[in-house]
Amino acid sequence: MVGLSVGEKYFIQGGINQNLRSDGRKRDTYRPIFVETGVIPQANGSARVRIGTTEVIASVKAELGRPSALHPDKGKVAIFVDCSPVAEPTFEGRGGEDLSTELSVALQHCLLGGKSGAGAGIDPSSLVVAEGKVCWDLYIDGLIVSSDGNLLDALGAAIKAALSNTGIPRVHVTAAASGDEQPEVDISDEEFLQFDTSEVPVIVTLTKVGRHYIVDATSEEESQMSSAISFSINRKGHICGLTKRGGSGIDPSVISDMISVAQHISEQLITKLESEISAAEAGEDEL
Amino acid sequence: MLHSKTFSKKTRGGKVQKLVREVYLRDDIYCGASFCKVCDTSAARFTASASTILVLDTNVVLNQIDLLENPAIEDVVVLSVVLQEVKNKNTAVYNRIRALCSNPARKFFVFSNEFHRDTYVQNMTGESPNDRNDRAIRVATRWYQSHLGDAVKVLLITNDRENKKKATEEGVSAETIESYVKSLGQPALLDLLAQPASEDIIMEEVEDLRPSKRKVVYPEHKPMSEITAGLTSGIYHQGKLRVNRYNPFEAYVGSESIGDEIVVYGRGNMNRAFDGDIVAVEILPQDQWREDESLSIADEDDDNEEVHLVPSSADDAPRTTNSVSGSASDTNPISGRPCGRVIGIIKRNWHSYCGSLEPMPMPAGSGGLVYALFVSKDRRIPKIRIQTRQLENLLDKRIIVAVDSWDRQSRYPSGHYVRSIGEIGDRDTETEVVLIENDIDARPFSAQVLACLPPLPWSVSEQDLVNPIRTDLRHLRVFSVDPPGCKDIDDALHCMMLPNGNFEVGVHIADVTNFVHPGTPLDDEATQRGTSVYLVERRIDMLPKPLTEDICSLRADVERLAFSVIWEMTPEAEIISTRYIKSVIKSCAALSYVEAQARMDDSRLMDPVTKDLRNMNTLAKTMRQRRIERGALTLASAEVKFQIDTETHDPLDIGMYQIREANQMVEEFMLAANVSVAEQILKHFPGCSLLRRHPTPTKDMLEPLLRTAASVGLNLDISSSKALADSLDHAVSDDPYFNKLIRIMATRCMTQAVYFCSGDLSPPEFHHYGLAAPLYTHFTSPIRRYADVIVHRLLAASLEIYKLPTIFRDRPQQTSIADNLNYRHRNAQMASRGSVELHTLIYFRKRPIDTEARIVKIRSNGFIVFVPKYGIEGPVYLTPRGEKGGGEWFVDEQQQKIKKMDGSLSYGILQAVKIHLEVVEPQPNRPKLQLTLL
Amino acid sequence: MEYVSPEGLRLDGRRPMEMRQLRAQIGAVAKADGSAVFEMGNTKVIAAVYGPREVQNRSQQIGDQALVRCEYSMANFSTGDRKRKPKGDRRSTEISLVIRQTMEACILTHLMPRSQIDIYVQVLQADGGTRSACINAATLALADAGIPMHDLVTSCSAGYLNSTPLLDLNYVEDSAGGPDITVGILPKLDKVTLLQMDAKLPVDIFENVMQLAIEGCKAIATYIGEVLLENTKQLEYRKGL
Predict the structure, then answer these.
(1) ipTM (interface predicted TM)
(2) Fewest CB atoms within 10 A around its CB: which of B6, B72, B391, B846?
(3) Nearest CA in chain B to C14
(4) CATH number of the domain that C66 lies in?
């Protein structure tokens, strides 16, 4: 909840119009991004991402499960987001649930691709241990620790960083069981499966305030938005997912314009993020 | 203090979980050398002059623990990583190495390398846990060398070739245990070395006297992964293998998965499993299920049935395989019980065994290395091949041998010599064998234990008398009735007529807990020992002698502390009220059963004590009658009594123990006291009382009794203990001994009563079948049974005299104490039996005798007889051994009779026969009793 | 199970009387009025304080003192096996209540009538002693928010395993099922404000274990004092004082 006076509102909108936002940024600049990986040692992978004063933690947990009957050759990936009341008193009790659901669904759209798993950042078929019998289920949990706008981009970045930090023990199926029985698996302590995360897209949200759209909106700016579109774009510049939020409609011609802007920004973001991630990984190794 | 944090990762099967544990690395872990200048030396262990310090690898601890226990091995570093590995692989060895480390006389020092800043080793990627631990051992060794400097040589002892090679490369001196022991220059130590499996090839050659034998003897064990898979899918069954005590070629695996026992016949099917091993079994196809298997492995020595003591309960009786079968024909009828074969061993139960070497000629050039076969006294254990350099010393000795390995090519497992006990046949040696076999600690009490005793001479002090918890009962006419010569008197009685015509009866029990306090070394020792052990010629005490024979013993004419149960009873022996008090008593007479009986019987005597005795006897008879009406069983056992020469300790005479009314009278009051105390403690501590239960025997267990009874035309009703008691009462015939025989047989069908913690079971399970009592415990013999000590503490706490010791809050520990008590109790009984068997043998060595015996079981080539007078049981062969049936005799299964073909002779169950009893020595130094038909 | 080796070392290398490593950081949540991260070994919690501010729900307003509210929540990934934890389950409601009562007792609520103070604690990692860590984090967050208090409450747990009193149980020791005492104290006033125990213990042993936990609390109090002092110095420095 951001309570703003008329003057403040005018100031924010005016700043955006003049390409000089209230914190001094241009419309297409991000706040400083800071990434830390391995923050939750109990998880298979984890990362904390701070964009300005927005802070989120993402963790990846892998559990052995059974592939669904429809897709016996694919593992399952699920994304949940939790809003901690620490970040915002209104999240107290069930207060954060709506936002949690909204963010979870948006992230699923942006990162997991279609129902068949096509176009997902993580290849679900790489999670299969024994077809139709055993697969890895990845549970991705996001937690909002401090919220100051642009949660989706932060979560997307945190998940990408957490995935690149993820190591899953290598599993061997020891005895092939017949029929419906679950086969026995042997877990190796030494070897880890790492994911190729270069295909995992980043999320760029363009928030429309007045006539212009901006990236990385703060919560004050978000309170003034008319609508926002989140693009998930991978390294190749392909759009992997797209969600529109906010009530008012957008002219279709503007959308294609927004796409090209988003593609351009995503390139910078991916480069920035990947250098941050590798710096964080290197830092973790030193510990 | 340095805190550092690292993560290790573990995964558990089924559900994969990442676990994170902190490790705090420290700089306050010291090296244990008293000459070290840097470390705190208060806990130092090594000798000041140590020139070599040994660091042991895990494999050395696991395999060479017998050698390590030898005092020649000194100044040893035991790394915590090694301890952890040993603990995971073999708890028994772990306990032994722990005992070495805590023994101040031995210079073994535990170095917690896993928490030391400089020796902690982090897992490298791609490194197996095993390699990582090996590396940790090398790092710790290197640390020791650099820490202690050049004055001391630090030597890594490892039999892992890879580890040794890497150590040498890294500049750490390393040797195998063999070469180290050789360097000590004590050849006898070499015998203690366990034989590594890699040397099997050489041993094979020695065994290989006949060329045909160089082949695979046993099928392969399946790999563990296959076994686990097989177990989950139900193809294989897991259970503990128990070998028939009386037929080592037959074993049973109790399997929960099929809810029945799987029978394993023959060494081939047992596939190198030992008694007590946890094994995986595969069920054979039904057409291969056999009743009896005498094929076993060819030409293994003949399975001799030996003369032994009559079993007193189902726990030590031979297992009943439908004894009469196979007969003369070799048709191997199909049995209803599943048969199986061992396909893998999940957990070994190897330990060391007592026995002797099989007689063999001295090879030329003796003194060198010789392979010999060891025969365990425990017949369930196969022969073990050992290597020795001192054959001539060992041939006539009882020795202890440990098992090392058993590979597929060897018929026998290989092991190594541990120590010798003494000459075969020598009474002291054989007694020690009995003690060792039953895991009985007969060592003198340690100084710490003795330090807990009150100073002698001890007498009741003024403080005891004024102590408010204690009641002065010295005015009462208390007396004790015990076996003659009893020195550890733990119970005494009194009986007084009250003005209202009722009786006050008191049972006074030695107040042992006044002297044995929880948590003291004395208490710990007693907890471990669990019970006193009564052998024929000696007693191994649970508590030190000053306590058992003096301070606690309720002797005549001295003031003693007691814990008393006092009832008011009507003349009909109905209990009106019960009091429990700590007291001071002064016994006026210590009677023997014979004396007490004589006094009661002598109508001229009218002294107060005799009158008390008569009153009590009347009450006891009423109580006994009532108990029997409730369904208590009058069981019988063939207990024998030796008369021992006081000088030579040789048995002079032997005979069955006679039970008099006086015995029954004392027993009755003890039972009543135990029951009263059980009620009291359970009322106050329903969750942590120590009780004793006797499980109701199952129909299967009583089956042999029913079969025997049926063959003599007797119909027993076993539907309840009451029904059984009644039908036992009605089992009479012209034969005066018939009833007792049937009772003895009934007794041996039942399991023994056991101690348990009341929180572990539900009240209906508390039932004591034999006594037909819903609750029972042991309270009356705290001098010789630890259970009674626990019960005394519970009772005192229920009266709010003392606080309940903290141990009672710890259920798992309490359960383990109860388990230990059962184990010790059973072992004590086995040891007593062993001692009696030994003395029987010594007795008959000089006195061959003709006596009467009863047939109890029919065999294909003879029968088993029971000799009532001496309480022994053994086979009588009608045909020479080895020849089965021989065509002259045939067995009538229906009537349980063995008949001569021409019908001239026949023997049936319970028939009396005359036999000749003598000791023969078929092999030198192997005397045994032999029974022959007259 | 052996929780203390004969050499006197616990499974993680600590001695029985030693605490895990403490770490604290003030000001982790930018928007909150006060916040702190507190770590005890692998247990890690964030606390944020909002307030004193206008009472959100008028019916809860108290005329002569401040309303203190608390919510405790656990992140999905905080424990070894991942579970979706519904908010407001019994355990978290109970812990919320315990924290609220403990903190309320030391806040000078009468100075802030008709206002509301919200304390939110979020467990990021649970490895035993979460309750204590939450209280310690909440204390730091309240101090960071500048809320007037009698004293800085600190909390620590102690248990009894293998007949040895152990300070600050970690998860493995905690799940051994032995007695576990959580104590909260006001160190300057030398008063116990929180005392909880599960399982049972004889009274004489209980006193020893509780005393050990109190010693632990005092050590934490010293540490928290240092952290706050350091933080204040930083603030002074930034303000150019």
Answers:
(1) 0.88
(2) B846
(3) B24
(4) 3.30.230.70
